[in-house]
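[job 4471] stage=fold_predict status=RUNNING
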Amino acid sequence: MTEFTPWASLIGGTMIGLSAVLLMLWEGRIAGISGIAGRLLPPYRDGAFLSRLGFIGGIVAAPLLISLASGTPVSQTISSNVPLMVVAGLLVGFGSVWGNGCTSGHGVCGLSRLSARSMVATATFMATAFITVFVVRHVIGG
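[job 4471] inference complete, writing structure tokens
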């Protein structure tokens, strides 16, 4: 079962929102993680490599800093089913490219800008997530 964590969720959501606002303010860019990560690879189109690297570095460092500050490890559960993880990764990557953005770009930034395209994209990936969880938990028996 999933644990209900309203305070941690509120703080995390606030930090995500704040980072999206600051990135838009300072860089004039949407905080879409797939786009930022994808533009870390050549060819480099602009001079924003270091800011992108810093943004992704912050995402990676955050759980480590929380663990150091709290004295408890951050728990993360990852499936040991490698073929499932490969297929899931390919589907997420394909969806990000095909949908021209990811959950952070469309769900956080696009919805706050009232983008119709982001509303459709977010509804699509949320519906897909609901169906996937239902199938895994109740049909397959996960």
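[job 4471] summary: The radius of gyration is 17 Å.
[job 4471] exit 0
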